[in-house]
Give the backbone structure.
Amino acid sequence: EPEVTQTPSHQVTQMGQEVILRCVPISNHLYFYWYRQILGQKVEFLVSFYNNEISEKSEIFDDQFSVERPDGSNFTLKIRSTKLEDSAMYFCASSGQTSGYNEQFFGPGTRLTVL
Amino acid sequence: AQKITQTQPGMFVQEKEAVTLDCTYDTSDPSYGLFWYKQPSSGEMIFLIYQGSYDQQNATEGRYSLNFQKARKSANLVISASQLGDSAMYFCAMREGRRGGSQGNLIFGKGTKLSVKP
């Protein structure tokens, strides 16, 4: 069964450093998302991406964040200068259908720890 | 105001019994979807069940069913015949109507931690 994959599973970084979180969505999917979950809290939407551009973003997704689909398979989230409060689990998700409901398939997550 | 409210931070259920996890939502959009996800201690998000706002019947997926009461804006998850492996966090989420090219992001509740007792 196709699945969303994410690398790395755990990333530890120093405050102020740049990090890139990588995702490989399901191959025939068209819509891509990043969510984050601070430990013990609910999952929060960051950004959605379709047709090679951002379609929606939340207030959390400020100028420190960017997303890119550098090739036909990868979808990345970059945090330019990490802060302590960026420590969280980051989930990538993808969905594929253009009509009807479309389930968002989540990856296993990358746990980001900022020291 | 909260878009998704899960009022039960924790629930206990005896193995083999049924359990209902509550979820209420708030939207003025006539077109929306409601989702339930399971998050075990390993951290991944596992899709369980979906209900569309225009669906006439309650959704069912195996041991999972969704008790959709549109007028009350509730979408409770019912797990029948609980198993030890059902112990996890359960999140209710809503996707509002599509805007432009977006499929709509999910808005999550705070979750309910379900513990199944042997």
